[in-house]
Design goal:
Strand content: 5-15%
Oligomer: single chain
Radius of gyration: 27 Å
Number of strands: 17
Bound molecules: adenosine monophosphate
Helix content: 25-40%
Length: 496
């Protein structure tokens, strides 16, 4: 299929081709004819699907083929009426959409501008007063200009609400209602949202008139058969928790993902120190070393394979029982690729993500992509410290903080085995409980209450006849919260 066959003009097809695109994405193939036809549209699509061009291209076409009913009305010096209003939740998205309008509209004569806070009000007001065809705005700044009569929205022919669910999350619904009150009754409405909670459905019900509905299916439907859970944990306690889980549940054949090569190496070494047979594979390892690690893993000589996203892409291992995200990927699609390693061909698979306060944004993006909330849990003894504050993830990667507890990095002597279980484990020996919500993402505050507890405890005798024990954590490593006790075997499962 070509852009031309969707009914776009030469000027637009040329601009798209010059930008390097030859084939419309699925959302574009559906949205472009629908918008050109002039009706309202309700589109379920997230970022990455090509949704922006899906509304920008046909809206530019409509502007170029139809004249504004409000145009100048013969008066000299009258302001160009605003014909299209795109409302976005963030400044970045507003800037991005406006850049796309310039890219795709380069052979047309329309004018556009973005409007958002944090930059000078005066120049925006001046530009609005000169007149502009297309305004891409965040709600607050748009209303400020509307209140000061810098912009007249009564001439808008096409309204686009982009990432409507995110606007809702950010509390913009009252602002959206105020904006809608400034628009003319007769107009075309396009609503894009990755998810459809009740409020969005209600908004769509009020806003849209017999809309065409388009849904782009999530990239991977295997997410349906995989048991997914998030375990909230302190930033510096992930390694201990992972060692403890592997040891307690006697997991083998675990594929663990880290974000960086350095992180993969460090984690594999730390797991080895904890008595777990682990190897890392990533792009810096020779093909020979990677092949050997993979063969060892397949044979069962290695229990844990720690991999980066790129290294894992070429791996041929089917139906793994379990995938662990030691770090959440910053590209949400990578999450789907990662967990797709388990639960293949109808096999029961489990994907566990160890998530600290720094990764809440990544988690939200992933949930938006897969269109579901992943149940949250905590493991008693490893609960995140509520006073732990989010830090930029890339800072950690540059090694500005130890990757895990000081106990491990200082190589303290290990303690005798921690007592296994505390009567809270379930029948399968899985210490998992389902309970009620607590949002780790709400962790704010100052300081970190840290105990001066023990290092991770070696749980000898938990090996599987291989002579290696597994580390179990108890009583708090150097970074443990002060409140932990020996009763660390219970897992409080928490779902949203
Ligand atoms: P969006 O979902 O609109 O944020 O677009 C995601 C990415 O896909 C952007 O980098 C676009 O430039 C790119 N893109 C949009 N349409 C196409 C297309 N037809 N072919 C290839 N890439 C595209």
């Amino acid at each position: 299929m070509s852009f031309q066959s969707l009914g776009l003009s030469d000027a637009l097809v040329r601009a798209v081709a010059e930008h390097g695109y030859t084939t419309p994405t699925p959302i574009q193939a559906q949205a472009i004819p629908a918008v050109l036809a002039g009706g309202d549209l309700l589109a379920g699509a997230q970022t990455g699907t090509g949704k922006t061009a899906g509304f920008v291209l046909p809206m530019l076409q409509r502007l170029s083929t139809e004249s504004s009913p409000h145009a100048a009305k013969g008066q000299r010096g009258a302001r160009r009426p605003v014909r299209v209003l795109v409302v976005t939740p963030t400044r970045e998205l507003a800037a991005q959409v406006e850049a796309s309008i310039r890219t795709y509209g380069k052979h047309l004569k329309h004018t556009s501008m973005s409007l958002f806070g944090g930059v000078g009000f005066g120049p925006q007001a001046a530009q609005l007063k000169r007149g502009v065809d297309i305004v891409v705005a965040t709600p607050g700044r748009l209303l400020d200009h509307a209140t000061q009569r810098n912009v007249d929205l009564s001439t808008v022919e096409i309204l686009v609400l982009d990432e409507a669910d995110r606007m809702l999350d950010m509390g913009f619904l009252p602002d959206i209602r105020r904006i809608l009150a400034l628009l003319p009754a007769k107009r075309q409405n396009l609503l894009f949202s990755a998810t459809f909670p009740e409020e969005i459905k209600a908004l769509a019900g009020r806003l849209l008139d017999r809309p065409r509905t388009i849904e782009v299916t999530p990239p991977n439907s295997t997410v349906d058969v995989i048991r997914q859970r998030v375990i909230a944990v302190g930033r510096d306690r992930k390694r201990e928790l992972l060692s403890w889980m592997i040891g307690t549940h006697r997991w083998s054949q675990v594929l663990v993902f880290t974000r960086t090569k350095h992180g993969a190496d460090k984690l594999a070494q730390a797991l080895e120190r904890d008595g777990i047979r682990a190897q890392a594979i990533h792009g810096n390892k020779s093909q020979g070393a990677r092949t050997k690690a993979l063969a060892d893993f397949k044979k069962g000589g290695v229990d844990v394979l720690v991999a980066t996203d790129i290294a894992a892409r070429g791996i041929d291992i089917a139906e793994l029982p379990r995938v662990v995200n030691y770090d959440l990927p910053n590209v949400p699609e990578d999450y789907v690729h990662r967990i797709g390693r388990t639960g293949r061909a109808g096999a029961d698979g489990e994907a566990i993500s160890l998530v600290c306060v720094d990764e809440q944004g990544f988690l939200r993006d992933i949930e938006r992509l897969i269109r579901r909330a992943i149940p949250r849990e905590t493991v008693a003894g490893f609960e995140p410290d509520p006073s732990e504050r989010a830090q930029p993830v890339f800072k950690q990667q540059r090694g500005q903080r130890p990757a895990y507890g000081a106990g491990a990095s200082q190589g303290r002597p290990r303690q005798p085995a921690a007592p296994r279980g505390s009567g809270h484990a379930d029948a399968r020996g899985h210490d998992r409980r389902h309970a009620q919500p607590k949002e780790a993402s709400r962790a704010h505050g100052q300081g970190q209450a840290r105990g001066q507890g023990h290092d991770a405890h070696r749980a000898g005798g938990q090996g599987r006849g291989t002579g290696h024990g597994h580390t179990a954590a108890r009583g708090g490593a150097a970074h443990a919260t002060a409140s932990r006790s020996g009763d660390s075997r219970r897992t409080h499962a928490k779902s949203r």
